[in-house]
Write a structure and sequence with these properties.
With 476 residues, the chain is mainly alpha-helical. It has a single domain, classed as Growth Hormone, Chain: A (Up-down Bundle). It is 80% helix and 1% strand. The chain is built from 19 helices and 2 strands. It has a two-stranded parallel ribbon with strand order 1-2. One of its GO terms (cellular component) is plasma membrane. Keywords: Membrane, Transmembrane, Transmembrane helix, Transport.
């Protein structure tokens, strides 16, 4: 018999929060491993750098189109195992298999070398890796939306901020584990001397993800879907019907949800340049300082050291995230009614941190800025989900069901993913202009440019704050 730690809609104790949100830590480890080491791994396989850029568009594109589809399917899914858990398990299986084949793709393709010459083998390896990255991005979507929707389903309205704070804590832990792993020689540490660093990282990520998904799914009990929903699953689960339900739900979002998604759109336009180019920016600062001191003779050694210092910057960010999430969780009773205010302050702090790069010329100062950025990023991982979770449960209280949670979370992810796509589209021509004019500092410029949407998010947050105040006044 499975261990039922908590059931849907019931008051939960601390263990329940930790068990259910722990999966997000392991999911974040997967993303940290892939994002921090994936580009270098793909380049070692022989993939051209411009193809790697196309490869990494898989995440935002799948987040835009796949996640809302999966979320809506889970809303209408009738099963004795629940609505969310089948999607979580299916997504976990697909994610684990994708990571496994990605880590071993070179060995798998080389086993066909009796049929392929060297060039054909390299092309086959790169092609397989390209599709495996897209497969990984696809299967993460049902896993992610399932976990987020299940958290909303399981906990009542007054415990949604606590659940989101726990989730933010585990996301911080996942980032910290992923960042710290880059400083350890895992093949030597684990005794797997024939394995590469990337393969060891993938092994740790898959074992951690599998174990936490199994425990999380066994430790909760979902309310079975209503009979009419179960019957409807068989007749209305087609693509166009699901898209119609997504569109209908988007029309019926309340003002708070619309504000949150618009805020996240601006916020993630600001986050994209820093998260994708921040480590390279800090590495360039370090390399520039060292080259001035040592000259061009030590170029290759300086570049290798600079890459490690770029990774160190995100270790600093992860430490700050984890510390902030612990403080948020500890002070939740005092901050629960001021979530919007905290979010505003974090966006302003982030914009100031980005603009301060105008005055930074050393890598040590940039590490301090990165630490402060981690505070803002931790709040970004906590505040929107706490507010959306409360609103979804309020809709359940009014409508007698919570079957639209997956669709709402999917639409929320659309706002985040579209923002990243647009931000990438803005950064690309800027890089081309700087390169064609022979100018340096393109990375610093796009990072500073992120202050504009960050301030736009803070402005939009003022509207959200007023809406929440009116909502509380009406409730009184």
């Amino acid at each position: 018999m499975p261990l039922r730690v908590f059931a849907e809609g019931k008051k939960a104790h601390t263990l329940a929060f930790q068990v259910q949100t722990l999966t997000l830590c392991r999911l974040q480890v997967v993303w940290s491993v892939v994002l921090s080491n994936g580009t270098a791994y793909l380049l070692t396989l022989g993939m051209p750098s411009h193809v790697t850029a196309i490869t990494w568009m898989a995440g935002p594109l799948c987040g835009t189109f796949v996640q809302p589809y999966m979320g809506t399917l889970s809303d209408k899914f009738g099963s004795r195992y629940g609505r969310r858990r089948p999607f979580i398990m299916l997504g976990a299986i697909g994610t684990v298999l994708s990571i496994f084949f990605l880590a071993c793709v070179e060995q798998l393709v080389s086993s066909l070398n009796i049929f392929l010459d060297d060039n054909a083998e390299r092309l086959a390896t790169c092609t397989a890796a390209f599709f495996l990255i897209w497969s990984l991005s696809f299967w993460i979507q049902p896993l992610q939306v399932g976990v987020r929707a299940l958290i909303v389903d399981l906990f009542p309205k007054d415990q949604q901020p606590q659940a989101s704070a726990c989730a933010s804590y585990w996301v911080g832990c996942g980032n910290l584990i992923g960042a710290a792993s880059g400083f350890v020689s895992l093949p030597d540490t684990l005794g797997l001397v024939r394995w590469t660093q990337f393969q060891c990282l993938c092994l740790i990520a898959t074992v951690a993800l599998t174990s936490t998904v199994i425990v999380g799914c066994l430790a909760c009990q979902e309310t079975p879907a209503q009979a009419e929903v179960t019957r409807g699953r068989h007749v209305s689960a087609g693509l166009f019907q699901v898209l119609k339900r997504v569109r209908t739900t988007s029309y019926h979002l309340n003002d708070v949800m619309r504000h949150v998604m618009l805020i996240q759109f601006f916020s993630w336009m600001a986050w994209f340049p820093f998260l994708y180019y921040g480590s390279s920016y800090i590495a360039n600062l370090f390399a520039h300082q060292e080259m001035l001191s040592n000259g061009n003779s030590a170029y290759h050694a300086v570049q290798q050291t600079a890459t490690r210092f770029g990774t160190l910057s995100f270790f600093s960010l992860s430490c700050s995230m984890l510390l902030t999430s612990i403080i948020l969780h500890a002070c939740l009773a005092q901050t629960q009614r001021r979530i919007a205010s905290i979010w505003i302050a974090s966006q302003i702090l982030y914009a100031m941190a980005l603009l301060s790069t105008y005055f930074i010329a050393t890598w040590r100062a940039s590490l301090i800025i990165t630490f402060y950025v981690g505070i803002s990023f931790s709040v970004t991982q906590f505040a929107p989900f706490a507010i959306l979770g409360q609103e979804c449960v309020s809709m359940k209280d009014l409508d007698g069901e919570a079957l639209k949670t997956g669709t709402v979370m999917g639409l929320h992810n659309v706002a985040i993913s579209l923002a990243q796509l647009i931000s990438a589209g803005v950064c690309f021509p800027i890089f081309l202009v700087f390169k064609s004019w022979g100018l340096d500092g393109s990375l610093a410029f796009v990072i500073r440019l992120g202050a504009v949407p960050a301030l736009a998010a803070a402005w939009q947050l003022r509207k959200l704050q007023r809406t929440l105040e009116k909502q509380r006044a009406t409730a009184i």
